[in-house]
Design brief:
eight-stranded mixed sheet, alpha/beta, 9 helices
């Protein structure tokens, strides 16, 4: 296969003609897009991203937007003088913090993204995992290697940090039958009604698997997955992806993103992609060109 990466794509009559086969490929199909907190910091980039989502809807593709908001949550906690700490990249979330997380994610960020889409000529509705019981959560059982043992793992209490226990796609099914783009904040509640903060990548992957999306796009602040030499990897089978984790070639925050992509493809998503959300037209480059734009995960 040819290299998938090409940064010279631009919206033009010629480019649209080239994109037509790919538009037909995704016609009436679902693409779940996770939009990261750092990528949301640039107003012009946000407007361009919203325009791309509106374009997808206009040509017959059904985008579902799941967003994060870590930097914005951090700023709000600082403003309120609430201390925050992290364990393995996950925010420790006490009762006070989870209220702020929900306020920022399901409130200001969610509505800002809805407004951006409407401002670019589309229609959007803001949801959280609580709406229509879209995401039923459970407490995340996080562990790390016990420093006193090379085998045992110690449990770490992260407070009200959760993970999807069940996805009910009914509310998304209703929205996707309309001209409306759903914008989902990654919060959810357990069966007793307790609110949990859910990692946006994890939420997007679970939703994509439940609705059998044809693509899951994780927009982040890196070009994709790199090999041991620092070269961008264009395609990975699931076994190859697991090998990167096992050998230590994948480290830090890239590991949970890779695990999310693996889980999504195993759940029925045709392909999952990690790509740079800061790049103009990143979503269009990935979907509408043969060379793509990030690291594509597929079944071998």
């Amino acid at each position: 296969m040819s290299d998938r990466h090409d940064t010279n794509w631009a919206a033009s009559a010629a480019a649209l003609s080239e994109a037509l086969p790919y538009i037909r490929r995704y016609d009436k199909r679902i693409v779940v897009v996770k939009y990261g907190g750092h990528a949301m910091g640039d107003t012009a980039l946000g407007q361009r991203f919203a325009r791309d989502l509106v374009m997808l809807k206009q040509v017959g593709i059904n985008p579902v937007l799941v967003h994060g908001g870590g930097p914005q949550i951090g700023k709000m906690l600082e403003r309120l003088k609430i201390k925050s700490s992290f364990v393995d990249g996950l925010r420790v979330t006490d009762a006070q913090t989870v209220d702020i997380v929900e306020m920022v994610l399901a409130g200001s960020i969610n509505k800002e993204l809805v407004s951006l889409i409407i401002g670019q000529g589309g229609m959007a509705v803001g949801l959280s995992g609580k709406d229509g019981q879209l995401l039923t959560a459970r407490k995340l059982a996080h562990t790390r290697a016990d420093p006193d043992s090379m085998i045992e793992k110690a449990a770490i209490d992260l407070g009200f940090v959760g993970e999807p226990a069940h996805v009910n796609p009914h509310v998304l099914d209703i929205v996707l039958k309309s001209d409306i783009i759903p914008v989902v904040a990654p919060t959810g509640a357990d069966t007793s009604g307790q609110t949990y903060n859910i990692n946006a990548d994890t939420a997007a992957g679970a939703i994509a698997g439940a609705i059998k999306a044809c693509r899951l796009l994780l927009l982040t602040d890196v070009p994709g997955v790199k090999d041991a030499k620092g070269e961008l990897i264009s395609r990975l089978t699931l076994d190859e992806a697991r090998g990167l984790i096992k050998t230590g070639a994948a480290t830090g925050g890239m590991i949970p993103k890779i695990e999310t992509c693996i889980a999504a493809v195993e759940a029925g998503v045709e392909g999952a992609v990690i790509l740079d959300g800061r790049a103009p037209n990143a979503v269009l480059l990935e979907l509408f060109t043969d060379k793509g734009f990030g690291t594509l995960f597929e079944r071998g």
